[in-house]
Amino acid sequence: MDRHIVFSKELTKADTLVLKNLEADIQDVAAKPLSEGLGMTSSQDPMDLTMDPDSCIISEEEGIRDTAALQTMMGLNDPKNPNFEPTVFNSWDLSSLGKLEPAFDRLLKSYIRLGKSVVRNETDIVFLTHLILYFTTSVPSALLLFTHFSWFHGIFHVVMQVSYTGAYTLMMHQHIHGRGVLKKDYAWFDQTFPYILDPLMGHTWNSYFYHHVKHHHVEGNGPDDKSSTIRYQRDSVLHFLHYVGKFYFLVWLDLPLYFISKGRYQVAARQTFWELGSYVFQYTMFKLNPKASLFVFLLPLAVMRLGLMIGNWGQHALVDRDEPDSDYRSSITLLDVPSNRHCFNDGYHTSHHLNPLRHWREHPVAFLKAKHTYAANGALVFHNIDYLMMTLSLLRKDYAHLAKCMVPIGERQIRMTMDERIAMLKRHTQAFTEDEIKAKFRKAQ
Question: Which residue windows are transmembrane per the record (predicted)?
């Protein structure tokens, strides 16, 4: 099965190490007869991919391989390690830049020193890079549209903003979980810049924080999660359109009602204030300059909300029928370029649900350390596909493609045929009835 593993040259160093490690595990299992491994007995459900963690026998060779990969990844993350490498740019690793001209080398080193003095974590100089990018392009472009509008500029501005939204949103993902990304000396700016940039990127003020941190991570795609996928047939276009439409037109009402239902009245009031305040601001700007507001605020808002729902659908489309309230079995892990190189390891969604406060650079390390636990819990890993294509592949019912993108972990997954993978994935997209939800979700009981 390892013939389907594809290594992109643009993968992060950590993703390359993880994927090579998993490929070696696949080859190890393929090289030994079934009788030496766990296998499946005739009485076992072929779709039950869980296994006893104690039955995972780690060979000496695998142990050495895992240790070497982990030491390399941890060294890249540790400022005290000589191999430490901060993230300065999304598209390039520092080590990939090669030998620079002396002037550029001095400039880069000066910028890195500056970045380390500004960002909260020394790995995260890339956040300063992005803030500089947005305040030197998005903000001036928006101001220019309001003072000297042109249709060409408006279209160019929207295209530019859409290209920024993924990285910006995942930078804000780190921001809302960590309550900032800059050092305390810059707390005033750290807490202020979202109020300037959020509307330009399609976010309403503080909505991401309230929906994602205060709501989604509390409910975990369960019955009370207003963005839950469990009641939908996740390969149905009609169900997907209903899912997106509900978020588009009712999130302003659904979210405060959720907080009220949980007795969190102050949170409901604050969330409503910021959501409605955003709409009032955008309406006011539209009255002042309709054409500029269309391109600066309204189109980014429409694109962002569609993108958020496409992403969440892809992240939580494959939900185990038997244990749907398990973080391992209701979310997935992606080893791909768009999610992990350009969007700060967003592909490690299971790892994020297991520990929402885990720093984005630590996800590959945490995954590799716990890969046998992932396997024991029937977790799903994919590569060479992002959340957008995951969603589109499901809506096209292209399970053969998804099966090829799957990176099997644990012997039972590794020994599955392509047809068995497809059958398992189809089973994971089935909608849950209300009776099933009551029976299988502990919070619903």
Answer: 125-145, 151-170, 240-260, 292-311
